[in-house]
Amino acid sequence: MTLSTQISSELSLEDFLKLPETKPANEYIEGRIYQKPIPQGKHSRVQTKLSTNINQVAEPQQKALALTELRCTFGGRSLVPDIAVFEWSRIPTDEDGEIANRFESYPDWIIEILSPDQPPNRVINKIIFCINQGTKLGWFIDTDDKSVMVFQPNKLPEVKYDADILPVLDVLSDWQIKAADIFSWLKVK
Amino acid sequence: MTLSTQISSELSLEDFLKLPETKPANEYIEGRIYQKPIPQGKHSRVQTKLSTNINQVAEPQQKALALTELRCTFGGRSLVPDIAVFEWSRIPTDEDGEIANRFESYPDWIIEILSPDQPPNRVINKIIFCINQGTKLGWFIDTDDKSVMVFQPNKLPEVKYDADILPVLDVLSDWQIKAADIFSWLKVK
Predict the structure, then answer these.
(1) Model pTM?
(2) CATH number corresponding to B39-184
(3) Chain A residue with minimal CA distance to B118?
(4) Closest Cβ opposite residue B151 in set A114, A125, A156
């Protein structure tokens, strides 16, 4: 039994995008709709804390921006990464210079946090799709195994544990974060 | 909670190999021992049927051999793949020309089947380790998602579904198998 249930089939991307947004968000992949799982404690904690940490180093100097639950439509799919990070120059804007509502390109960095009962291959496939579309970096976080699988173009992924330094975007290379740092956030007492 | 529990720590590989075998098998990874999960129905069905199918095409012409739950010790780790496939010329033998008991090299093809509650990153890390040691092909089978993630050297993995043809060892290239073929075996009634 999976939480990312397939709800319907054989719908065009155009028609999918006309549907009202749901919570949790739906994703459109090759003619099918999949609903993201309902976030639970560990997932939510890592998503919130990690996006905050990224923005603390990325935002002040306008290097990049981390956005949670942002719909990104590109390459015939409409995906909602747990965290999508865009380099500053690639953030789409409207005529007023404000951040656009519609994101129609791949994030530079995609971060997915595995939810209980979520099929890992489906989530990893989403990361691989992004990398093949232009994304430079993918993280797949498993709070159970306390590990981060790192995806980069044209190479095998690497699984990072404990004191392993996690690769970040080049524009954030001043910043260092270890796998253990992420899982330390789970400890709240 | 994971089934592949870490039982002890800080043991040499040499000392680990002197310990009695257990069921399910223990694996030795970077000074630590992890016990494989107890196989369940779907896992066992795919493991048995897939190894049988591989041997049906691989054994008659002495192309390759699929072996289940075989201990392979190499690169400082001692691993027990769900299915290890060795090309015929690489099967170790004793003085009598019989198959050896100790396998001290990487399999040419490693197949892992995800068990419920098993941390995917840990299993995938095992596949990536093998590929980095010389293994040409890795399959990571998720019976829940009905998909196979395929690993090959120096490239991003690919996730195969439904009618997608699964890459096999070059020596078995006469043979074609689809992702759906594997999951059709789960249906027994």
Answers:
(1) 0.90
(2) 3.90.1570.10
(3) A145
(4) A156
